Protein: Ester cyclase
Organism: Streptomyces virginiae
Amino acid sequence: MTFVQVIDYETRRFDEMNALIDRWAEQSSGRRTATHTMIGQDREARNHYVDMVEFASYEEAMKNSQLPETDRMFQEMVALCEGMPKFMNLDVVRDEHLNKQLARRVFEEAAMGGNMGVLDECFATNYIDHDVSKVESTVIGREAMRSDMETWRAAFDMSFEPMAQLAEGDMVTTVWNWRGTHKGPFMGVAPTGKTYEMSGSTTFRCLDGEIVEGWWHYNPGALQQQMGGSGSPYGT
């Protein structure tokens, strides 16, 4: 279970605090177990800060606290604070990245499940799609996404296995493995009934709960070679 330690403190010497955290990160490299840190400054009380440090588990956090570098940092941190910092230890019981959910719906409900109505819910009307495998590598409008997806679904019973999904700011990248059983004409090749595989990644930029831009990276040529055909589903 993910564990988060929250440190609440006041300081007039944040530049020194910032440098202290940088030194700790450098000195504990290769041994620290923290996976994510974030510092927030109170907009109404500018000397008030909150640090949030994430760990894979409580046990990993305890390993981190036992590092001599962590003990030294705590002592120096207290010296920079106005009063004693307050600590809160949290077991994370719900952790959602809404943009990740948006991306997963595209793969699970639309691409694999066949619910094309999901595209209207997930993509902006003026969605910008980038796909270097196409003749026109940038296309505007979610209807182009619908057409592409229908083309692939008509040709394959397919699945996407997410290998990793990363989110930062308004961007979500999904690294996937694709597997499809060839059931309809594709790339100029008649149905073979065979199953093919390829890997790739998709990055979506999200805004106001919709996907507004996407980048697809994969190798359709490798799939074409597996199938023994020529041409492209996009007319190259």
In short: Residues 187 and 232 are 5 Å apart (CA to CA).
